[in-house]
Specification:
about 30% strand; 6 helices; alpha/beta
Length: about 325
């Protein structure tokens, strides 16, 4: 497979429709990747940065993605900070960074990919990998990204996310504990907690792992907000992984935070519509039956109390107090 160049240059960078990093010379390369056209015949463009260093016998290819969900911006800024950091480093092997995967969602300030087809619903891109080149616009978009950009160019992968809008996570990693390399990567992130994640169909992390490329999903705090402390910790974690893989020189930093590792998730959801106030904070340890949220009606009268269905670590709480029935209030990991 060869890199497929177009005749177009956008903002000073070559536009491509296929990438093969093995063809690139040593140095930093910046491209716009064009997966497909949108509904008015213009093209979506994804920024791609490749750091190509000395190619030793065991030099890895590392893929870093962000922005699969359009409202998860801490991950995007983390990817950009990694780009800035690597500009000043000597790299061994290859690092590919795609900081904004879901261009449609980012422009529309939404989690999902927005299709122009009036018969199509918004699509959660992280449920349809590796895509389908004969499917709808979202399926074709992901198929092009997977087959022509991501899959040929990675030995290990890190996918950066956040909790969606209206709720928050700590620095939190999904890792498949059946794959030792993913557990090692997760712990190198120095996170607050790790979930033993066997993976769901259609999730990028799962598709990577099933393809033989060890991968983790890193949740960098809350959606649609800027959290510099979370971003800095996530950058440090990814750099830790790169050092461990021999991509960068330097010693691996030791964990600075207590990490909770769990295998089960319990989600407390609203049963009524109203305004919910969490009674716990992220990182708290709770016991079964403990009060975790109180909900009020539009007059400020208490209408419901919610209690922990199990003991565990508080993984997520709602930031948006207005909650419909079925929406998240508190999530626990055990």
């Amino acid at each position: 497979m060869k890199t497929r160049y177009t005749d177009d240059v956008l903002q000073g960078h070559q536009v491509i429709t296929r990438l093969n990093v093995d063809e690139l010379p040593v140095g930093c390369h910046r491209f716009w990747f064009r997966p497909q056209e949108n509904g008015i015949g213009q093209s979506w463009h994804l920024p791609v940065v490749v750091y190509r260093g000395e190619q030793t016998a065991n030099a890895p290819k590392v893929m870093i993605t962000a922005g699969v969900h359009g409202d998860e911006l801490n991950g995007v800024i983390t990817a950009q900070k990694i780009i800035q950091h690597l500009a000043e480093q000597a790299v061994v092997g290859t690092v590919v960074i795609v900081p904004t995967v879901n261009v449609s969602g980012m422009l529309m300030h939404t989690r999902d990919f927005i299709l122009s087809d009036p018969d199509a619903s918004p699509t959660n891109l992280n449920r349809i990998f590796p895509g389908n080149p004969e499917g709808d616009a979202a399926q074709r978009y992901i198929a092009s990204i997977w087959y022509d950009l991501l899959a040929p160019n990675a030995d290990i992968a890190v996918d950066l996310h956040t909790q969606t809008r209206g709720a928050a996570y700590p620095l939190y990693v999904f890792a498949d504990y059946r794959i030792p390399q993913t557990v090692k990567m997760a712990r190198l992130m120095n996170p607050d907690c790790i979930f033993d994640d066997p993976g769901d169909d259609g999730v990028l992390e799962t598709v990577w792992n099933r393809s033989g490329v060890p991968s983790i999903t890193v949740e960098v705090g809350a959606g649609k907000v800027l959290q510099p402390d979370m971003i800095a910790r996530s950058v440090d974690g990814v750099i830790n992984i790169l050092k461990s893989e021999g991509v960068l020189e330097g010693g691996v930093s030791q964990p600075q935070y207590e990490c909770y590792e769990g295998k089960k998730i319990f989600t407390v959801r609203a049963t009524l519509g109203g305004f919910a106030l969490p009674q716990v904070e992220i990182g708290d340890r709770v016991e079964i039956g403990q009060l975790v949220a109180v909900q009020y009606d539009s007059f400020g009268d208490e209408i419901q109390r919610y209690h922990a269905p199990a003991s565990g670590y508080v993984l997520s709480v709602n930031l948006d107090p207005m909650r419909e029935p079925g929406t998240l209030l508190v999530r626990l990991i055990q």
